[in-house]
Amino acid sequence: DGGTSFTDAGPTEGIDAVATLIIEDGTGVPDAQAYFDAAFVTDYNDNHDQDPAWGAADLAAQEVAIRRGTAYVTRAYRNMWPGKRTYQTQGLPFPRTGIVDPDNFSISSTTIPLAVKQACAEAALRAVAGTSLLVDEAGGQNLIAESIQIDTIAINNQFSGRKQSLPRFRVIDAILEGAGLLASGFRRGPG
Q1: Contact of 24 with 92, CB cutoff 8 Å
Q2: How far apart, in whole angstroms, are the C-alpha atoms of residue 110 and residue 73?
Q3: Which of 72, 156, 164, 166 is 20 to 30 Å from 137 by CA-CA measure?
Q4: Cα separation of 82 and 33, whole Å?
Q5: Considering the entire predicted model, what is its pTM?
Q6: H-only helix segments in 77-168
Q7: The predicted structure's pLDDT at residue 140
Q8: Nearest residue to 146 via CA among 137, 133, 155
Q9: Peptide bond into 102 cis (omega under 30)
């Protein structure tokens, strides 16, 4: 149908192809592309970054940025979310079951946590400003071990999956970490 499909594995087709922004409302919308509309990012921007690029963009460009920002957060954190998706057919990683906040209160299985929306808004602000969020990845296999030696300096790494090729943004990491929305074992990388 030319639309965009999202799963825990990330976006699967052209992000710019759909005219109407389809928003996840906590009911497991199968073809959802975002957790909020442009007004949410405008409010967030007014209270935080005040990035002039957002206000200068028209609604269509803002909605493309929201799709890209949501796709980035979906893809960059896909293996780090705690709990599991609430609905088998939902299009985005949230809502989820089995999540508690840092104060050990359960997060409703039909709620999209504010921190997830804020993380996606941060990514959308970067997208509208022209920052590349979804870097093309070369095909490859899972990297189990890597050793590099130059003269007497040796570096040894092991990965359980592909090496991270997506850019990382400390503010997005901090928003999600602070809300307890990353599964244990997450360690922020450089950048």
Answers
A1: yes
A2: 19
A3: 156
A4: 21
A5: 0.75
A6: 114-128
A7: 46
A8: 155
A9: no
